[in-house]
Design goal:
With 152 residues, this protein is an alpha+beta fold. The chain contains 5 helices and 8 strands; from the N terminus they run E-H-H-H-E-E-E-H-E-H-E-E-E. The chain has a single domain, classed as Aminopeptidase, CATH 3.40.630.
């Protein structure tokens, strides 16, 4: 069963060795430095927004949150291969959180690795608009900006 709790800084080191290869590569290609450090910064930056951890009886499943930047929410998520065992619950929960964040932020926006097709499909399913790839990552790595406007 998929459970939820608020994230702690130590969760970055807990989940890093368990990450899906694509999630690890996305963090590295973004140019944010080492993965654990980048995740710790994401949790810290989300302290006035929200950061959470999905887990089951075997350990962490996904670390996620939204970092406030003026009126914009910057959503982020990394996951482990164990997400495959909780697909329905994960989809339901992430849709819930996006709707909650949208109540607070008129615009949700971030970037996704252009080669991470699974993440792009999931973001599209959540209602995000995906822009064409631009060389915005480390050494010109291609990333797509994604955004979702609040519903009136």
């Amino acid at each position: 069963m998929l459970s939820f709790r608020l994230a702690h800084l130590d969760d970055a080191a807990l989940i890093t060795p368990l990450l899906r290869t694509s999630d690890r590569l996305e963090v590295l290609r973004s140019g944010q430095g080492d993965v654990t450090g980048a995740l710790r910064r994401s949790i810290e930056q989300s302290s006035h927004g929200m950061a959470g951890l999905f887990y089951d009886e075997n350990g962490p499943i996904a670390l996620f949150g939204v970092a406030p930047q003026c009126d914009v929410g910057i959503p982020w998520l990394v996951g482990t291969p164990s997400l495959i065992h909780h697909q329905k619950a994960f989809l339901r929960e992430t849709r819930f959180w996006v709707r909650q964040w949208q109540k607070r932020y008129p615009l949700l926006m971030n970037h996704v690795d252009a080669s991470y097709s699974q993440a792009i499909r999931w973001l599209s399913w959540l209602g995000f608009q995906i822009e064409p790839p631009q060389p915005t990552g480390l050494n010109g790595a291609l990333f797509c900006r994604f955004s979702r406007q609040g519903e009136d």
